[in-house]
Specification:
single chain, about 5% strand, two-stranded antiparallel sheet, Arc Repressor Mutant, subunit A
Length: about 70
């Protein structure tokens, strides 16, 4: 999975926080949902414009930054 296909940082969007491309949904927000027990299905139901790959990209991004 190449997270760069799904995630971008732009100083004009959320002060440059990494977000899912084409949205204002930050990687931080997705990781918070997952940390609080949300399932992929709950996220996708609440935010249908996101994809499963977007969620996976957020996880891979976090792994890449922590490695």
């Amino acid at each position: 999975m190449e997270w760069r296909d799904h995630i971008a940082s732009d100083p004009a969007v959320l002060a440059g926080k990494p977000v899912i491309k084409g949205t204002r949904i930050s990687v931080e927000l997705i990781l918070g949902w997952l940390a609080n027990g949300w399932t992929y299905e709950q996220i996708l139901e609440s935010y249908p414009h996101l994809s499963r790959e977007d969620i996976l990209a957020a996880l891979v991004f976090a792994e890449d930054r922590c490695a």
